[in-house]
Structure of Regulatory protein RecX:
Amino acid sequence: MTSDPWQGDVRLGVEAWTGQPPPEDVEAAGPDADAEEVARKILLDQLTGRARSRKELADKLAQRGVPDDVATRLLSRFEEIGLVDDSAFAHTWVSGRHSAKGLAPRALAQELRRKGVDDEVAREALTLIGADEQEEAARRLVRKKLRSLERFDDATRTRRLVGMLGRKGYPPGLAFAVVRDELGSASEETEQPLD
């Protein structure tokens, strides 16, 4: 059985028969999309998974070709009804990232700045992390990482642990103090005789 190259696609058959491409099917294309409806759907889709900052949403709308005036109007409306709230977003972000990743306020401030959160709003959200919580998070990170560094000498372990804390936004003074204490505690535990 021989199959023709145009079999199954009617447009190719019309073109082969008439020698011209078929006219566009205006009804099949449907009506032009309303920019406001498209933007509203984009915003709702973006807000379904997690909260987002206003800047993140504005960037997504611009990326999808939504006119600036429509984007601004809808984002303002979403703020009015509470679906877009940079302050609530910042608080949620700080709480989640600090507890899950152990990030220090400096690193969290940088992340919030990249997400377009105002510095004042970010500072207010960062007050959730007190000095004690910051130190305890640093200790948890060091203890967890210390297990994989047992084969190294103290200088190498210190360098790697302080570097890890620095990448997570901890100040050098706190990083060195926590690492020194945790290395001391770890060496005391290994020196204790077994009963």
Summary: Residues 55 and 114 are 9 Å apart (CA to CA). The chain has three domains: 35-84, 85-129, 130-187.
